[in-house]
Amino acid sequence: MSNDSTARGYLTPVGDGPKYDEDLEREVSRWIRGVTGLPATKVYPRWTSTQAKIPNNGINWCGFGITTVPQPLSQADIQISEEESEQWTWEQVTVICCFYGPQGAQLAALFRSGVFVEQNNAELNRVGLSLVDAGTIYNLPELINNQWVRRYDLTVTISRKNVRTYNIKSIVDGNVTISTGD
């Protein structure tokens, strides 16, 4: 089955596409760790098939989850060669960060202020992401194992440009005759 525009049928992208799922979670985890200084063993993605063991009460840690990926803001189709076309979309990704532990509020505030530091955003840009906004910190204590645990939630929005490549051939020569009406 052909996967190019020389034959009828559906086309699927070729090459690497945008990161989603665990790949995107890894980038978000690196960002949170880099800005807060939390070790890798204390930043966990939420809602995974295998759940990490929740740290004991009194330990600072962060659980985060990608909550929304809305419809792309805009789209462009660009013919990049005679053989391929790229589809560009710009997407916003909303991430909820839940900071736990005795310094949960401090970590949430540190992260919120730190994401606006230009050098920190430049590191995020290196993986194709950019900060859009960081919202209000909410104090939402959570009952875990019959103990109240400090929890502070912060929602951040990041954006990215997605590029998908398709084998769409340009028309170089057509079997067409153009007459001037003479």
Give the helices and strands, then pairings.
Layout: H1 21-36, E1 43-45, E2 61-68, E3 74-79, E4 85-100, H2 104-114, H3 118-125, E5 129-139, E6 142-144, E7 147-149, E8 151-166
Report Rg: 23 Å
Shape: elongated
Named CATH topology = Alpha-Beta Plaits
* Percentage of residues in DSSP E strands: 35-45%
Main beta-sheet strand count, sense and barrel state: 6 strands, mixed
Q: Just give the CATH class.
A: Alpha Beta
Q: H/E element string?
A: HEEEEHHEEEE
Distance between the termini: 45 Å
The helix content, as a percent range, equals: 10-25%
Helices, by number, come to 3
**Structural class, please?**
alpha+beta
Please report the total strand number as a whole number: 8
Query: Which residue ranges are poorly predicted, with pLDDT under 50 across at least 5 consecutive positions?
Result: none
Number of domains: 1
Mind telling me which CATH architecture this is? Answer: 2-Layer Sandwich
Mean pLDDT: 91
